[in-house]
Amino acid sequence: MQDKKLLQIGEVAKIFHVSMGTLRHYEQEGLLEPEYVDEKTGYRYYGVRQLEVLNTIRYLRVLDLPLSEIAEFLHDRDTQVMEEKLVRQKEIIEKKRQELDIIAGKIDHRLEQLRDAVSSELDQIKMVCTPKCRIAWMKDSLKPESYLDLETAIRRLQKGQKEPLAFLGKVGVGISEEKLKKDDFQSYDLVFLRLDEEDIYEGKTEIFPEQKCVSIRFCGGHNAAPQYYRKLLEYIRERGLKIAGFSREITLIDYGMTNDTDKFVTEIRIPVV
């Protein structure tokens, strides 16, 4: 052993900045067999050959190659094998990069929406321009008292999706143009999901053009909405405007983000011409 200049597992762990548990795990996975194991003490010793193997393992782990792939290479070392694995790994990394770009985009949109909601001017009617957007929607007569009452409709919108949809602050309800003109806003006619550009939705969607809307934000949920519909409809009539589509009502901040009901924010928008 002295002639071979073997190193104990603790020494190897320090040299390579890994834990002894990691070295034992590599051994269990068949990647790194010790040069010598003391039968009496169970101590493991490593030589130059193991250090070279460990260097290879560390290099391939930096490239995020899984241990199973590394094991295959170590048992069949060849330049062509290495090239094939690196090419495949690059393809995997590129796919992950694209997925991370999508996640980053979702985070940016959510931060923008959250900051906008937190800084809302409440109980003030405004004329706003709703940008072009893509939505998935379905007709559904309902009268939600809280966001929990929307769960069934949300599940229907999500049915058949290959990927989970992040819907916080993006699910809304609407009242038809016909009912709005009759001052009938005690129940809703449809449920919609506002989709960001990077959202993948398997199903029918529609692109709604840029629209001018009258808008109001208030503290509370859907159960508090009727009084604000009255204010919006009065505002529309006083200014000689005409309703040009269904309302879009979204709870921007609710139990999905806070337990403090004083921080709840709901917005109603009614398209007008």
Explain this structure to me?
This protein has 273 residues and is of the alpha+beta class. The chain has helices at 9-16, 20-28, 48-62, 67-75, 79-118, 151-158, 177-181, 226-238, and strands at residues 7-8, 36-37, 44-46, 126-130, 133-142, 171-174, 188-195, 206-208, 211-218, 248-253, 265-271. The strands form two sheets. The chain has an eight-stranded antiparallel sheet with strand order 4-9-11-10-6-7-5-8. Strands 1-3-2 form a three-stranded antiparallel sheet. A hairpin with a 6-residue loop joins strand 2 (36-37) and strand 3 (44-46). It starts with 6 loop residues before the first strand and ends with a strand. The mean pLDDT is 87.
State the share of residues found in helices, binned by percent: 25-40%
What is the N-to-C succession of helices and strands?
A: EHHEEHHHEEHEHEEEHEE
Q: Any idea what the radius of gyration is?
A: 30 Å
Ranges where pLDDT stays below 50 over 5 or more residues in a row are none
Query: What is the tally of beta strands?
Result: 11
Number of domains: 3
CATH architecture level-2 label of the largest domain: Alpha-Beta Barrel
Assembly type of the chains comes to single chain
What is the top-level CATH class of the largest domain? Alpha Beta
